[in-house]
Amino acid sequence: MTKIFIAEVIDTAILVLFGCGSAVLMGAEIGMTGISLAFGLAIVAPAYGIGPISGAHLNPAVSLGAFLAGRMTGGSLAGYVAAQLSGAVVGAGVLYLIASGQAGYDIAVNGLGQNGYGPGYLGEYSLASALIFETVMTFLFVTVILGATQQGAPGAMAGLAIGLTLVAIHLVGITVTGVSVNPARSFGPALFVGGKALADLWVFIAAPLAGGALAGLLHRMGVTRAD
């Protein structure tokens, strides 16, 4: 379990550092399409590089879905979530150290790739839009993950399918919430940014977990599982 814990810490740190880092360090140069690709590739790299150790969940919503689908125990779920939150903090911390070395950078102004909604945040979508987007997209994301990793699926392609799904989700919804679909991804940056990012964090915990739980339950029931 120690090896798995370390793997999930590293994997989640990669996701936050690559994904949020693309927005903070290179957002003006690569635009939203580039940021979307960075988040997707940040899934592909751990999936093939470290995935054989832990399955590369990188995401409490994914782990919850796997638990409810009957693929892991409650004890393992707790360990995975603790590792993912720790990894997100590590990734956000490293990103902050890098970003703060740029002249004029101010975390209160430039942020750390945190999620949000409402007035002053990207497309200024409502709370209802944020909740619907995060719940539905996480449901779809976790459904794809459970399907791509189920017995009989082409395992060699799973990491690519999952990464490309995350790219598509970002292409659709960056302006809605910045795209979380992952409580850990939201937790790390919010912890450093504070203020509104922390106040909004509940949305990016509750909605993704609800979507992941629904995906796991439907998979366990056989609705989205190949028999």
UniProtKB/TrEMBL annotation:
Superkingdom of this protein's organism: Bacteria
Principal place of residence: membrane
Subcellular location: Cell membrane
Residues passing through the membrane, by range: 12-44, 50-70, 77-99, 125-148, 160-181, 201-218
Signal peptide per UniProt: none
UniProt membrane topology term: Multi-pass membrane protein
Keywords attached to this entry: Cell membrane, Membrane, Transmembrane, Transmembrane helix, Transport
Keyword Transmembrane tagged: yes
Keyword Disulfide bond part of the UniProt annotation: no
InterPro entries in alphabetical order: Aquaporin-like, Aquaporin_transptr, MIP, MIP_CS
Pfam family, one: MIP
Entry's family note: Belongs to the MIP/aquaporin (TC 1.A.8) family.
Name of protein: Aquaporin
Species this protein is from: Rhodobacter calidifons
